[in-house]
Structures are given as C-alpha cells and as structure tokens.
Design a protein that fits this description.
2 domains; 12 helices; mainly alpha
Length: 268
C-alpha cells in the first residue's frame, strides 16, 4: 500500500511539474540558480543577494546546468522543469517520512493514512511540483521536530541535539519563516526531557554540557538572521546605508518582520 501511496503522490506532483504554467516566483528561483552557475552565489543582476530559498537554489543549480548540457540550449520550458525536480524529490521524501513517523509512533495503518493525506494534499501537490523551497522546508521542519523529540527523551542524546541544530540551520537558510518553530521546539524539548527523565538522574537540560548546545542554538539562529538580513527583506534599507540602523537593531527588526509575516500568512 505504501508503494501505491508513493506512486500516487509522485504521479500528481510529476503531472503538475510537467504541465502547469510557472508560478511567478519560480522565475526568480530560476534566475538565482543561473546566477549561482555564473558567479557562485545567487546575486541577481540588480546586485541583490537573493537568500530566499538559498539551499533550494543550490539544489536547483546543477539541475539547471544538466538541462543546458542535455539540450544544448536554455529552453525555458525544459529548464524550468529541471529546476522543479528538487521539490518533487523533497515532496516524495516527505510522504515517506510521514509514513515512517506514523508507523513508529502509532501503527503502520496510522502512518499509511497520514502519508496518503499528504500525498493527496493539494498544497503538497502544488509545492511538490514548483521550483520553490516550500516542499523542502516542510521536509526539514518535520526532521527537526523528530530529532528534537528523540534527542530529548529519557537521558537525552547530545549527538541528536547537535544534528537537530544542523538541520535547523539548513531549514532557516531554506525558508527563514522556520524561525517561528524555535520557541515551541525548545519548550517541547524541555517538557519531554522532564516528563521522560530517568528516575535518579538529572534531566539532560540540567547538565553542564547543555551550555554548549545553548550557544550552538544561538549561533544557528544568529547566522540565519544575518543571512536573511543580508538579502535585504522587502522595504528594508541595505545594511551599511544611512537609512539602516545598527546591526543589532536591524537583526531584531528582521525577526520581527519575518515572524509577523509568517503568522499573518498562517491565519489567512
């Protein structure tokens, strides 16, 4: 049954990938990938550093190059189709991961139902077939949540917590809106650690080694904010310009603006 669910999810996303007209933001992603091939970083001809979907742009770049090599041209239809492939892969990986989580935490039947719902989800189909970062961001968000949970149970696992920080950084560089996941993930990790603590042992978050993890989390969040600010969010003055404030103030403004934007979008 899982094979059928994956095949159905693949077919829907592939049909969208091959037959839908590009969403207007996809052209920007494609341009960013082309600029990576040209200069190594997604700096647009205007001089803007396009950090939005940074990780996705780097995944798309070699596929854009492959399209050019295979066809000998820059045919926009073929190039766009190739640039959409990372979303297709991320979407399918998300379906498989949801099944795995459901089967592990509940039952194979629950995992199959969850995977089928995601496979047939209109939003999943759309973003799993577009050259945008959202299917990848969804996959990374789920991975971070699972790692945070597994690393906080019982005695805890420092190795898994460091791995979750690494995946969180990739998520922030994929879609900075993932910043709103940080507070609930931290609170959830503390709650899980307390509720599942081993009798007679300190909870993992009361050990001295957790200080390094706190510094690591601060570094991950800080780097994500800095990269986002370097990309000059809409309506914000470039760093270093007379209109911009100090670095600390500008970084705080970036978080406030982006978190508010994501929450507003979630409520629509």
């Amino acid at each position: 049954m899982l094979v059928a669910v994956l095949a159905g999810g693949f077919g829907l996303r592939l049909a969208y990938l091959l037959h839908s007209h590009p969403f207007f933001d996809e052209y920007t992603t494609l341009l960013a990938a082309q600029r990576i091939l040209a200069v190594g970083v997604p700096v647009l001809p205007s001089g803007l550093f396009y950090e939005h979907g940074l990780v996705f742009s780097y995944f798309a770049a070699p596929l854009v190059a492959a399209a050019r090599w295979l066809t000998g041209t820059d045919d926009p239809v073929i190039t766009m189709a190739f640039a959409r492939v990372p979303s297709l892969v991320a979407g399918l990986a998300g379906i498989a991961l949801i099944y795995r989580i459901g089967a592990r935490w509940f039952s194979p039947r629950a995992g199959l139902i969850a995977a089928a719902l995601l496979a047939l989800s209109p939003e999943g189909m759309v973003w799993g077939g577009r050259a945008r970062m959202y299917a990848l961001a969804q996959l990374l968000a789920v991975v971070v949540a699972v790692l945070a949970y597994d690393s906080s149970r019982g005695s805890g696992s420092g190795r898994l917590r460091w791995l979750s920080l690494l995946v969180l950084l990739v998520a922030l560089l994929t879609q900075f809106g993932a910043i709103i996941l940080v507070p609930p993930l931290v609170l959830g990790a503390l709650a899980v650690g307390w509720l599942t603590r081993v009798p007679g042992e300190r909870p993992w978050f009361l050990r001295r080694t957790v200080l390094a993890e706190v510094v690591g989390l601060a570094g991950v969040v800080g780097l994500g904010i800095l990269v986002k600010r370097l990309g000059q969010p809409l309506g914000v003055a470039p760093l270093g310009s007379p209109e911009a404030g100090g670095l600390a103030q500008e970084l705080l403004n970036t978080v406030t603006y982006q978190a508010g934007l994501v929450l507003d979008g979630a409520g629509m």
